[in-house]
Structure formats: C-alpha cells, structure tokens
Amino acid sequence: MIADQISILLVEDDDLDADIVRRSLSKQKITNPLVRARDGLEALKILRGSESQEGLKRPYLILLDLNMPRMSGVEFLDEIRQDEQLRESMIFVLSTLPDAPGLLEGHEKEITGYLTKGAFSETFVNHLNSLKP
User: Fold this and answer.
1) For position 86, which CATH number holds?
2) Which stretches make up the Response regulatory domain (predicted)?
3) Residue 37 pairs with which residues in a beta bridge?
4) Residue 73 lies in a domain
5) For residue 133, is pLDDT > 50?
6) Distance CA 80, CA 109 (A)
7) Residue 33 falls inside a structural domain
8) pLDDT per residue over 12-23, tens digit each?
9) Quick check: 117 and 45 in contact, CB under 8 A?
C-alpha cells in the first residue's frame, strides 16, 4: 500500500494528457493527493508557496512534462536544482516522445526516471513507496 500522505505534483499543460495521467494513476490504484500545475512557473509557486499559502509539504514527487508554455520542463529542472530547498525533489519526466532522454542532455543525474504518459510501472510505484516517512 502506498502512503496516502505523499503528494504528487503533476506539471502538465495539456488537459487531455493530465486526464490520461490521472486515469493511469487510478488504474495502478495510486490514490495519493494529486496537485496540478500547468507550467513550470506555476509549479514553482506551488512548491515554494506564497505570502498567503504554504508550499507543498514533503514528502512529494513531481511528474514533469517537458513541452510547456512560459517555462519548459528543462527550464524548470534548471531552476529547481539551483534552489536549496527544492533541489532534492524526486522528479519523473513524462513524455510521449521516444527521444525525451536526448532533450534532457546534461540533466540525466537530476531526474529519477522517465515515464511514458499513461504507463506507470512497478518501478514508479516502488519509488513512490520509498518516500514513506
């Protein structure tokens, strides 16, 4: 059983893809709280919080799309890895592109893994379970 208190931050601009991810998580019986950001800037605001709202509490993991407006997934990775408070975040890159690893050249060690949108494997579930407090 997966610890329900571990939040999942989905950083995805496309509504259809976000629904596919939600259904895939449900199919794997992953019922953790899911928070969605539509781009990297919104995700950073959710993680860091604001004057009126606290940031997303740990433990959490991030499902990150690469192609987004305003701040792409690669730009988000650059920003998060420079932030002392966020740099240790567990990040899975979501993609439907077979060349996604090539898009992340130089970031290989900064992500936990790659996931195909709609296909959540036992490896992903094991990583989620590893975050149990």
Assistant:
1) 3.40.50.2300
2) 7-132
3) 11
4) yes
5) no
6) 13
7) yes
8) 999 998 988 888
9) no
pTM value is 0.82
Distance CA 22, CA 113 (A): 18
Q: Cβ(81)–Cβ(112) under 8 Å?
A: no
Helix (H, G, I), strand (E, B) or coil at 96: coil
For residue 81, being part of any structural domain is answered with yes
What value does the mean pLDDT of the chain take? Answer: 79
Whether the link from the prior residue into 59 is cis, omega within 30° of 0, is yes
Q: How many domains does the chain have?
A: 1
DSSP SS3 for 62: strand
| Tens-place pLDDT, residues 97-112 | 655 555 566 555 578 8
Coil, helix or strand at residue 7? strand
* DSSP bridge partners of 91: 62
